Amino acid sequence: MPLTLPPTPIQPGDRVAAAISGGADSTALLLLVHAANAPPRNALGVGLSAVHINHTLRGHESDADQAFVEDLCRRLEIPLHSVRVDTAAYAETHKQSLEEAARTLRYEAFATLLREKKANLILTAHTLDDQAETVLMKLLRGAWLEGLSAISPVLELGTPPAGGKILRPLLNTRREALRAFLRERNQPWREDSSNSDETFTRNRLRHTVLPVLRQENPSVDQTLANLAELAREEEARWQSELTRILPHLVLPGKPVRGGGRANSTQIGEQALAIEIDRLRPLDAALRRRVVRAAARQLGARLSFDETSRLLTLAGFPPSGLNDPRVPTRPGSKLQLSQNLLAERSPRELRLSRCAPPPEPA
Description:
Blueprint: E1 15-19, H1 24-37, E2 47-54, H2 60-76, E3 80-84, H3 87-93, H4 98-115, E4 121-123, H5 128-140, H6 145-148, E5 154-157, E6 164-167, H7 175-184, H8 201-216, H9 220-249, E7 250-252, E8 254-255, E9 261-262, E10 269-275, H10 276-279, H11 284-297, H12 304-313, E11 333-335, E12 340-344, E13 348-354
Parallel strand pairs: 1-2, 1-4, 2-3, 4-6
Antiparallel strand pairs: 5-6, 7-10, 8-9, 10-13, 11-12, 12-13
Helix pairs in contact: 1-7, 3-4, 5-8, 5-9, 9-11, 11-12
């Protein structure tokens, strides 16, 4: 059966920009969208363009990728938005890895297209293989359930009227199927030499770990992708429940003498509290989520260990085992990462967070 663009929420009249690096996956995506939008059927009925980000990480090779994309778009008569960024300099300035910096700059370029009304939808060529690799990376890094949902099929970027969506229409398509599609059409693509560099975690998983796992389970890629879908649906269900109950559990600010509560007691500080008696009837899973959601309201992301220590401070040690590092008496305090301070009062678990001091110029 010939490969076609899978069903998408694209509507006639949308302004669609397909992200293309020149690699096999994104080249196939551009051809599939172009075929679905081309005469005589014009099934999509959209304004189609492409966007290419030259990260300037591989010198002449990066420039050759850009030239390949320009030539392909010229041949297909697709308008191209080209963006050139210095990813290495950005990574050094912002203390990020090259992977993090490239992702940040890529999404900044997408946001600019949406803000300037050049597109309202961005398509990226993430595949089922990418999903499996991402789930495995998240597992190794100790992700929570929301992390295991990995790559979302639809991502909201920005807010109306300046925002839009990122769609991943190939998320259930195998990488090899896209290469076969290109070979059938004698369409070349660019190979990124950095994809074989196993100093990057994703490449080690792709070339070393997943081949071993496939010997145990030939369908492990689909299994990991299924896990992502289950996690995404479970997380949506939990978020609905938290939205309902959090306003009844979390108190804003800190108590003040004479009654009432103050939003903060120091400049740049945020604070809230959870009544311990209201945590008692909750099951362990919901209790853990409430504590983490409360910290998120202050802009802090708790690790598994920090969540366990907070619950121990409040008198709910996991599995009934006390952590000797955590005091549990009223008046006890616990300093966590991200400038988050926890304090146990006779009735409340109080959280406060001070803004970090500005970095020296």
